Amino acid sequence: MAFEATLDALVAVPGLRGRPRKRPDKLHADKGYDFERCRRYLKQRGILARIARRGVESRERLGRHRWVVERTHAWFAGFGKLRIRFERSLETHLALLTLAAAIICSRFVEDLC
């Protein structure tokens, strides 16, 4: 159930020419999402599914795309308060996530300048 809710929660990507996009062209996922329900949902939304198949594909084929997600999780884990969610209030937790994302982005800008 979280699979569909996560895709439905995607916000439009602003800043591009034309109508803002509300869905990606394709989705890369590991073997944990190899269910007909997930594939059918992606097909209904017009998203190309790139999901590793259980027992068929090796785990190395999707590895080159997975490192982006793992690296991002590691960046957020670098902020001690975000490593484990201690905040009871969702608003406070989202504020801390937003602050961490802003700090991470500012570090990139700083390195570029």
Structure description:
- The chain has 113 residues and is mostly helical.
- The protein folds into two domains: 1-77, no CATH class; 80-113.
- It has five helices and two strands.
- The protein has a two-stranded parallel ribbon with strand order 1-2.
| Total beta strand runs | 2
The share of residues in helices is 40-55%
Q: State the assembly state of the protein chains.
A: single chain
Question: What's the mean pLDDT score?
Answer: 80
By secondary-structure content and strand pairing, the structural class works out as mainly alpha
Q: Provide the low-confidence segments as ranges.
A: none
- If strands are numbered along the chain, what order do they take across the biggest sheet? 1-2
Largest sheet, strands/sense/barrel = 2 strands, parallel
Strand content: 5-15%
Order of helices and strands: HEHEHHH
**How many distinct folded domains?**
2
Number of helices: 5
For the termini, the CA-CA separation is 43 Å
The dominant shape is globular
What is the rounded Rg? 17 Å
